[in-house]
Write a structure and sequence with these properties.
Oligomer: single chain
Helix content: 25-40%
Order of helices and strands: EHEEHEEHHEEEHHHHHEEHHH
Number of domains: 2
Shape: globular
Structural class: alpha/beta
Radius of gyration: 22 Å
Largest sheet: 7 strands, mixed
Distance between the termini: 56 Å
Protein backbone atom coordinates (compact mmCIF):
# COMPACT_ATOMS: atom_id res chain seq x y z
CA UNK A 1 0.00 0.00 0.00
CA UNK A 2 1.29 3.48 -0.91
CA UNK A 3 1.70 6.12 1.81
CA UNK A 4 2.13 9.87 1.46
CA UNK A 5 1.78 12.86 3.78
CA UNK A 6 -0.89 15.57 3.84
CA UNK A 7 -0.53 18.78 5.85
CA UNK A 8 -4.15 19.99 5.63
CA UNK A 9 -7.45 18.27 4.88
CA UNK A 10 -8.97 20.92 2.65
CA UNK A 11 -6.73 20.45 -0.43
CA UNK A 12 -7.52 16.72 -0.38
CA UNK A 13 -11.27 17.20 -0.01
CA UNK A 14 -11.31 19.95 -2.64
CA UNK A 15 -9.54 17.65 -5.09
CA UNK A 16 -12.07 14.87 -4.44
CA UNK A 17 -15.03 17.26 -4.69
CA UNK A 18 -13.84 18.35 -8.15
CA UNK A 19 -14.45 14.82 -9.39
CA UNK A 20 -17.57 13.67 -7.50
CA UNK A 21 -20.07 14.45 -4.77
CA UNK A 22 -18.40 14.31 -1.38
CA UNK A 23 -19.93 13.80 2.05
CA UNK A 24 -18.01 14.73 5.21
CA UNK A 25 -18.64 14.66 8.97
CA UNK A 26 -20.22 17.74 10.53
CA UNK A 27 -20.13 18.31 14.29
CA UNK A 28 -23.56 18.66 15.91
CA UNK A 29 -23.17 19.03 19.66
CA UNK A 30 -21.46 15.88 20.93
CA UNK A 31 -22.11 13.93 17.73
CA UNK A 32 -21.29 13.93 14.03
CA UNK A 33 -23.54 13.67 11.00
CA UNK A 34 -22.77 13.58 7.28
CA UNK A 35 -23.29 16.64 5.10
CA UNK A 36 -22.47 17.53 1.50
CA UNK A 37 -19.03 19.09 1.18
CA UNK A 38 -18.86 22.54 -0.38
CA UNK A 39 -15.36 23.56 -1.53
CA UNK A 40 -16.29 27.24 -1.28
CA UNK A 41 -16.47 26.96 2.51
CA UNK A 42 -13.35 28.53 3.97
CA UNK A 43 -13.39 26.63 7.28
CA UNK A 44 -11.00 23.72 7.77
CA UNK A 45 -12.98 20.44 7.51
CA UNK A 46 -13.59 18.35 10.62
CA UNK A 47 -11.51 15.25 11.31
CA UNK A 48 -13.89 13.13 13.38
CA UNK A 49 -12.38 11.27 16.32
CA UNK A 50 -15.07 8.53 16.26
CA UNK A 51 -17.65 7.20 13.81
CA UNK A 52 -20.51 9.39 12.62
CA UNK A 53 -23.87 8.74 14.32
CA UNK A 54 -25.63 7.65 11.13
CA UNK A 55 -24.52 4.37 9.49
CA UNK A 56 -22.74 4.16 6.15
CA UNK A 57 -25.50 1.86 4.86
CA UNK A 58 -27.58 4.97 4.13
CA UNK A 59 -25.33 5.62 1.13
CA UNK A 60 -25.69 2.10 -0.26
CA UNK A 61 -29.06 0.82 0.95
CA UNK A 62 -31.55 3.74 0.83
CA UNK A 63 -34.35 3.80 3.35
CA UNK A 64 -36.85 3.73 0.48
CA UNK A 65 -36.40 2.94 -3.22
CA UNK A 66 -38.18 1.37 -6.20
CA UNK A 67 -37.40 -2.33 -6.57
CA UNK A 68 -39.58 -3.37 -9.54
CA UNK A 69 -42.33 -2.06 -11.82
CA UNK A 70 -45.40 -3.43 -13.60
CA UNK A 71 -47.10 -2.07 -16.68
CA UNK A 72 -44.50 0.54 -17.52
CA UNK A 73 -40.90 1.61 -17.25
CA UNK A 74 -39.57 3.10 -14.05
CA UNK A 75 -37.19 6.02 -13.97
CA UNK A 76 -33.96 4.38 -12.90
CA UNK A 77 -31.77 6.52 -10.64
CA UNK A 78 -28.64 7.94 -12.22
CA UNK A 79 -26.00 6.71 -9.79
CA UNK A 80 -22.87 8.78 -10.23
CA UNK A 81 -19.53 8.42 -8.45
CA UNK A 82 -19.58 9.77 -4.89
CA UNK A 83 -17.19 9.84 -1.96
CA UNK A 84 -17.60 9.56 1.80
CA UNK A 85 -14.91 10.87 4.14
CA UNK A 86 -14.49 9.96 7.82
CA UNK A 87 -15.69 6.36 7.83
CA UNK A 88 -14.14 4.28 10.61
CA UNK A 89 -13.11 0.64 10.67
CA UNK A 90 -16.46 -0.40 12.13
CA UNK A 91 -18.14 1.26 9.14
CA UNK A 92 -15.90 -0.59 6.69
CA UNK A 93 -16.62 -3.88 8.41
CA UNK A 94 -20.31 -3.04 8.21
CA UNK A 95 -20.04 -2.51 4.45
CA UNK A 96 -18.27 -5.86 4.12
CA UNK A 97 -21.23 -7.50 5.86
CA UNK A 98 -23.72 -5.75 3.58
CA UNK A 99 -21.69 -6.98 0.61
CA UNK A 100 -22.30 -10.56 1.77
CA UNK A 101 -26.05 -9.96 1.59
CA UNK A 102 -26.57 -7.70 -1.42
CA UNK A 103 -23.71 -8.97 -3.61
CA UNK A 104 -24.42 -12.64 -3.04
CA UNK A 105 -24.39 -14.18 -6.51
CA UNK A 106 -27.82 -15.81 -6.34
CA UNK A 107 -29.52 -12.74 -4.84
CA UNK A 108 -27.47 -9.87 -6.25
CA UNK A 109 -29.09 -6.44 -5.78
CA UNK A 110 -28.26 -4.31 -8.86
CA UNK A 111 -29.00 -0.99 -7.15
CA UNK A 112 -26.71 -1.82 -4.24
CA UNK A 113 -23.96 -3.00 -6.56
CA UNK A 114 -24.19 0.18 -8.66
CA UNK A 115 -23.82 2.37 -5.57
CA UNK A 116 -21.05 0.20 -4.16
CA UNK A 117 -19.06 0.34 -7.39
CA UNK A 118 -19.41 4.13 -7.53
CA UNK A 119 -18.45 4.73 -3.90
CA UNK A 120 -15.03 6.19 -3.07
CA UNK A 121 -14.18 5.50 0.59
CA UNK A 122 -11.88 7.76 2.61
CA UNK A 123 -11.61 6.19 6.06
CA UNK A 124 -9.72 7.48 9.08
CA UNK A 125 -8.34 6.19 12.38
CA UNK A 126 -10.27 6.48 15.64
CA UNK A 127 -8.18 8.31 18.23
CA UNK A 128 -10.77 8.94 20.97
CA UNK A 129 -13.25 6.03 21.25
CA UNK A 130 -16.61 6.69 22.89
CA UNK A 131 -17.78 4.96 26.06
CA UNK A 132 -20.25 3.02 23.89
CA UNK A 133 -17.64 1.62 21.48
CA UNK A 134 -16.85 -2.09 21.76
CA UNK A 135 -15.30 -3.11 18.43
CA UNK A 136 -12.50 -4.85 20.35
CA UNK A 137 -15.08 -7.30 21.77
CA UNK A 138 -16.10 -8.49 18.30
CA UNK A 139 -12.75 -8.82 16.58
CA UNK A 140 -12.36 -5.19 15.52
CA UNK A 141 -9.83 -2.45 16.11
CA UNK A 142 -9.89 1.38 15.97
CA UNK A 143 -8.17 1.63 12.60
CA UNK A 144 -8.62 0.09 9.16
CA UNK A 145 -6.27 -2.19 7.26
CA UNK A 146 -8.55 -3.02 4.33
CA UNK A 147 -11.81 -1.97 2.68
CA UNK A 148 -10.85 1.64 1.90
CA UNK A 149 -9.64 3.58 -1.09
CA UNK A 150 -7.75 6.06 1.10
CA UNK A 151 -7.18 6.01 4.85
CA UNK A 152 -6.02 8.96 6.95
CA UNK A 153 -4.12 8.75 10.23
CA UNK A 154 -3.70 11.97 12.19
CA UNK A 155 -0.18 12.70 13.41
CA UNK A 156 1.83 15.77 14.34
CA UNK A 157 1.79 18.32 11.52
CA UNK A 158 -0.74 16.54 9.32
CA UNK A 159 -2.00 13.16 8.16
CA UNK A 160 -0.58 9.92 6.83
CA UNK A 161 -2.56 9.05 3.69
CA UNK A 162 -2.56 5.39 2.74
CA UNK A 163 -3.94 4.07 -0.55
CA UNK A 164 -5.78 0.76 -0.18
CA UNK A 165 -7.12 0.16 -3.69
CA UNK A 166 -6.36 0.82 -7.34
CA UNK A 167 -8.77 3.76 -7.23
CA UNK A 168 -6.94 5.16 -4.23
CA UNK A 169 -3.53 4.68 -5.80
CA UNK A 170 -4.66 6.39 -8.99
CA UNK A 171 -6.02 9.33 -7.02
CA UNK A 172 -2.74 9.78 -5.15
CA UNK A 173 -0.74 9.53 -8.36
CA UNK A 174 -2.95 12.07 -10.15
CA UNK A 175 -2.83 14.54 -7.25
CA UNK A 176 0.77 14.38 -6.03
CA UNK A 177 0.84 18.19 -5.91
CA UNK A 178 -1.11 18.16 -2.63
CA UNK A 179 1.04 15.50 -0.95
CA UNK A 180 4.61 15.31 0.37
CA UNK A 181 6.86 12.48 1.48
CA UNK A 182 6.31 10.96 4.91
CA UNK A 183 8.28 12.53 7.78
CA UNK A 184 10.80 10.09 9.22
CA UNK A 185 8.93 9.40 12.47
CA UNK A 186 5.33 9.68 11.19
CA UNK A 187 4.56 5.95 11.05
CA UNK A 188 6.00 5.22 14.49
CA UNK A 189 3.91 8.09 15.91
CA UNK A 190 0.82 6.69 14.18
CA UNK A 191 1.49 3.25 15.65
CA UNK A 192 1.73 4.74 19.16
CA UNK A 193 -1.57 6.58 18.71
CA UNK A 194 -3.22 3.39 17.50
CA UNK A 195 -1.85 1.52 20.49
CA UNK A 196 -3.31 4.13 22.85
CA UNK A 197 -6.70 3.83 21.15
CA UNK A 198 -6.66 0.05 21.58
CA UNK A 199 -5.68 0.46 25.22
CA UNK A 200 -8.51 2.92 25.73
CA UNK A 201 -11.00 0.46 24.24
CA UNK A 202 -9.74 -2.26 26.56
CA UNK A 203 -10.28 0.09 29.52
CA UNK A 204 -13.79 1.05 28.38
CA UNK A 205 -14.86 -2.58 28.02
CA UNK A 206 -12.90 -4.14 30.89
CA UNK A 207 -16.07 -4.77 32.89
CA UNK A 208 -17.65 -6.65 29.97
CA UNK A 209 -14.96 -9.31 29.53
CA UNK A 210 -16.40 -12.63 28.33
CA UNK A 211 -15.16 -16.17 28.96
CA UNK A 212 -16.63 -17.72 25.82
CA UNK A 213 -17.10 -16.81 22.14
CA UNK A 214 -20.21 -14.67 21.74
CA UNK A 215 -21.92 -17.10 19.37
CA UNK A 216 -21.57 -19.88 21.97
CA UNK A 217 -22.88 -17.57 24.70
CA UNK A 218 -26.00 -16.52 22.77
CA UNK A 219 -26.79 -19.96 21.36
CA UNK A 220 -26.02 -21.73 24.63
CA UNK A 221 -28.50 -19.48 26.47
CA UNK A 222 -31.25 -19.64 23.85
CA UNK A 223 -33.91 -20.38 26.49
CA UNK A 224 -32.63 -17.83 28.99
CA UNK A 225 -35.21 -15.66 30.80
CA UNK A 226 -32.77 -12.77 30.31
CA UNK A 227 -34.20 -12.10 26.86
CA UNK A 228 -37.63 -11.49 28.37
CA UNK A 229 -36.01 -9.38 31.07
CA UNK A 230 -34.27 -7.33 28.38
CA UNK A 231 -37.59 -6.83 26.61
CA UNK A 232 -38.88 -5.17 29.77
CA UNK A 233 -37.00 -1.95 28.98
CA UNK A 234 -37.63 -2.07 25.22
CA UNK A 235 -40.17 0.47 23.91
CA UNK A 236 -40.14 -1.05 20.38
CA UNK A 237 -38.84 2.15 18.82
CA UNK A 238 -36.68 0.02 16.48
CA UNK A 239 -33.90 2.56 16.85
CA UNK A 240 -31.28 -0.17 17.38
CA UNK A 241 -31.89 -1.63 13.93
CA UNK A 242 -32.22 1.75 12.20
CA UNK A 243 -28.81 3.04 13.30
CA UNK A 244 -27.12 -0.35 13.00
CA UNK A 245 -24.62 -0.40 10.09
CA UNK A 246 -25.35 -4.06 9.31
CA UNK A 247 -29.13 -4.51 9.80
CA UNK A 248 -30.56 -4.95 6.32
CA UNK A 249 -34.14 -6.16 6.68
CA UNK A 250 -36.64 -4.59 4.29
CA UNK A 251 -40.21 -5.15 3.16
CA UNK A 252 -41.87 -4.72 -0.23
CA UNK A 253 -45.17 -2.97 -0.87
CA UNK A 254 -47.13 -1.96 -3.95
CA UNK A 255 -47.68 1.65 -4.93
CA UNK A 256 -49.26 3.38 -7.95
CA UNK A 257 -47.06 5.76 -9.88
CA UNK A 258 -48.03 8.06 -12.79
CA UNK A 259 -48.54 5.38 -15.41
CA UNK A 260 -47.43 2.15 -13.78
CA UNK A 261 -47.47 0.19 -10.53
CA UNK A 262 -44.29 0.01 -8.50
CA UNK A 263 -42.92 -2.41 -5.97
CA UNK A 264 -41.22 -0.28 -3.30
CA UNK A 265 -38.46 -1.51 -1.00
CA UNK A 266 -38.30 0.05 2.48
CA UNK A 267 -36.28 -0.58 5.63
CA UNK A 268 -37.90 -2.91 8.14
CA UNK A 269 -36.97 -4.12 11.61
CA UNK A 270 -37.11 -7.54 13.26
CA UNK A 271 -38.02 -5.70 16.48
CA UNK A 272 -41.36 -4.62 15.00
CA UNK A 273 -44.27 -6.71 16.31
CA UNK A 274 -45.72 -7.59 12.88
CA UNK A 275 -42.35 -8.22 11.24
CA UNK A 276 -42.69 -12.03 11.35
CA UNK A 277 -46.46 -12.11 10.81
CA UNK A 278 -47.66 -14.38 8.01
CA UNK A 279 -50.89 -14.88 6.09
CA UNK A 280 -53.74 -16.01 8.32
CA UNK A 281 -52.59 -13.87 11.22
CA UNK A 282 -50.00 -16.23 12.71
CA UNK A 283 -46.88 -14.67 14.23
CA UNK A 284 -44.03 -16.86 15.54
CA UNK A 285 -42.40 -13.90 17.30
CA UNK A 286 -45.34 -11.98 18.71
CA UNK A 287 -43.68 -11.82 22.14
CA UNK A 288 -41.09 -9.07 22.47
CA UNK A 289 -38.63 -11.29 24.33
CA UNK A 290 -38.60 -13.67 21.36
CA UNK A 291 -37.73 -10.77 19.07
CA UNK A 292 -34.93 -9.63 21.38
CA UNK A 293 -33.47 -13.14 21.30
CA UNK A 294 -33.84 -13.42 17.53
CA UNK A 295 -31.96 -10.17 16.99
CA UNK A 296 -28.93 -11.46 18.90
CA UNK A 297 -29.18 -14.91 17.31
CA UNK A 298 -29.08 -13.32 13.87
CA UNK A 299 -26.16 -11.06 14.79
CA UNK A 300 -23.96 -13.66 16.42
CA UNK A 301 -25.13 -17.10 15.31
CA UNK A 302 -27.18 -17.30 12.10
CA UNK A 303 -25.09 -14.85 10.06
CA UNK A 304 -21.87 -16.44 11.30
CA UNK A 305 -23.08 -19.89 10.22
CA UNK A 306 -23.98 -18.66 6.74
CA UNK A 307 -21.18 -16.22 5.91
CA UNK A 308 -18.40 -17.01 8.35
CA UNK A 309 -18.43 -13.60 10.10
CA UNK A 310 -20.47 -12.08 12.92
CA UNK A 311 -22.98 -9.40 12.00
CA UNK A 312 -22.02 -7.03 14.83
CA UNK A 313 -19.10 -4.60 14.42
CA UNK A 314 -19.23 -3.10 17.91
CA UNK A 315 -19.84 0.49 16.80
CA UNK A 316 -22.09 1.14 19.83
CA UNK A 317 -24.76 3.00 17.87
CA UNK A 318 -27.46 0.68 19.22
CA UNK A 319 -26.45 1.59 22.77
CA UNK A 320 -26.63 5.32 22.06
CA UNK A 321 -29.85 5.02 20.04
CA UNK A 322 -31.87 2.90 22.49
CA UNK A 323 -34.76 4.90 23.96
CA UNK A 324 -35.20 2.33 26.73
CA UNK A 325 -31.59 2.32 27.88
CA UNK A 326 -30.74 -1.21 26.78
CA UNK A 327 -27.05 -2.16 26.87
CA UNK A 328 -26.07 -5.11 24.66
CA UNK A 329 -22.70 -5.51 26.40
CA UNK A 330 -24.41 -5.90 29.77
CA UNK A 331 -26.81 -8.48 28.34
CA UNK A 332 -23.92 -10.47 26.85
CA UNK A 333 -22.12 -10.36 30.18
CA UNK A 334 -25.18 -11.72 32.00
CA UNK A 335 -25.63 -14.45 29.39
CA UNK A 336 -21.96 -15.32 29.75
CA UNK A 337 -22.36 -15.79 33.49
CA UNK A 338 -25.42 -17.93 32.91
CA UNK A 339 -23.53 -20.14 30.47
CA UNK A 340 -20.65 -20.49 32.95
CA UNK A 341 -23.13 -21.66 35.60
CA UNK A 342 -24.61 -24.18 33.16
CA UNK A 343 -21.19 -25.61 32.36
CA UNK A 344 -20.22 -25.73 36.03
CA UNK A 345 -23.46 -27.51 36.93
CA UNK A 346 -22.91 -30.02 34.13
CA UNK A 347 -19.38 -30.79 35.27
CA UNK A 348 -20.28 -31.22 38.95
CA UNK A 349 -23.18 -33.56 38.31
Amino acid sequence: MDKVFLKNLKPLLDAIAEQMELYVPKKLGDYYSFSRYKPADSAEPVFNNIRVSSPAKEFLFPMREMAAVYGGKAETPDIKPFAVFGLKNCDLRGIKILDCVFKEEEFLDPSYVARRDNMFIISSDCFDPAETCFCNMVGGQPFAEEGFDLNLSKVKGGFIVEAGSEKGQKFVKDNMRIFTDLPADAESERDQIRKKSRTRLDEINAEYLLDNPINEIVEGCYDSPLFEEEAGVCVECQGCTRVCPTCHCFYLYDTKQKDYFGKMKMWDSCMRCDYAAVAGGENPRKILGDRSRHRLMHKFVYFLERYGIEMCVGCGRCVEGCAGGSEVRQLLKKLNEELKDKKHTKVTK
